[in-house]
Design goal:
By secondary structure, this protein is α/β, with parallel strands linked by helices. It has five helices and 14 strands. A hairpin with a 2-residue loop joins strand 6 and strand 7. 47% of the residues are buried. Keywords: Hydrolase. It comes from Kineosporia mesophila.
Length: 276
């Protein structure tokens, strides 16, 4: 499949799982009406993110869900023919360890999973890190997922591109600057970095990137929104800015990637023997 309509979500989610599920189902229907075949929801769309990143309170953590939790099955059922990526707090096999995780679903079930590898300072008190970046096949093409801070590191997206991903799904609960918040969100350092990383990861790997993010506030955290779809040249094809909504773009993924790599093919022209 080459031409794909992609929708990336900017929306707020919290601790009420029933509310979150209802909002997810509404967003799936909105995306379906817009013709979307791939929907990327934010990190922590089921259960919300941490209210305090610097010193997470063990009593205020998101509800931890088993990988086969009924809510994930309900999202898959609602997705039906659509491919949906969604973030949640995953309960490990030991019944205690938590992971900041994402799962990619359709009505046929689970297509792929990812546990956030790079944990910013403070988050390691709430979550254990994942250890791999792996792309996977879906009805809309080969996809790789990144969560939040993962996209700060070029190696994350590069690993997925080298594994054949033509589409990167970036799920975030990305806040404004915690220590020095700007009066206007558009001037906030984290706002600039969020856009910079989205465009850079797409351009340097010559892939399509769908970036979803939370909006609103939770505890001391204020989230940026700024959902977008980015082309292989780093061009923003659709975006929501700071408000809640859907960024929707139709992309001929194979053709766009082929065109971007026609003269300069970044992946094939790498010199890994020279890198440290």
């Amino acid at each position: 499949m080459s031409e794909v309509t992609i929708a990336a979500v900017a929306a707020g989610f919290g601790r009420d799982l029933d509310f979150d599920l209802a909002r997810v189902q509404t967003l799936i229907e909105q995306a379906r009406r817009a013709g979307a075949e791939l929907l990327v929801l934010p990190d922590a769309a089921l259960g919300g993110y941490l209210p305090d990143l610097r010193n997470p309170d063990p009593e205020s953590l998101p509800p931890a869900l088993e990988p086969d939790h009924e809510l994930i099955g309900k999202v898959a059922a609602s997705a039906a023919e659509m491919v949906v990526c969604i973030g949640y707090c995953e309960l490990g096999d030991d019944g205690e360890t938590r992971y900041n995780s994402a799962v990619c679903l359709s009505g046929d079930g689970v297509l792929g999973r990812h546990r956030k590898v790079h944990l910013p300072r403070g988050e390691e008190r709430a979550y254990a890190p994942g250890h791999t970046f792996s792309a996977f096949d879906t009805p809309v093409g080969r996809v790789g997922m990144l969560i939040d801070y993962d996209k700060t590191f070029p190696e994350s997206a590069r690993s997925l591109a080298l594994d054949g991903a033509g589409i990167l799904a970036c799920l975030s609960a990305w806040p404004t600057n915690i220590s020095n918040r700007a009066p206007r969100m558009s001037d906030d350092r984290q706002s600039r970095l969020f856009d910079l990383y989205d465009r850079s990861r797409a351009a340097e790997n010559q892939v399509v990137l769908a970036s979803a993010n939370q909006t609103g506030s939770l505890g001391g955290m204020r989230f940026l929104g700024q959902a977008k779809v980015v082309g292989p040249g780093g061009d923003i094809l659709a975006r929501t800015w700071a408000k809640a909504g859907l960024a929707v773009a139709t992309v001929d993924v194979d053709a766009e990637i082929t065109q971007a790599r026609r003269v300069l093919d970044h992946l094939s022209e790498r010199r890994p023997d020279t890198y440290r």
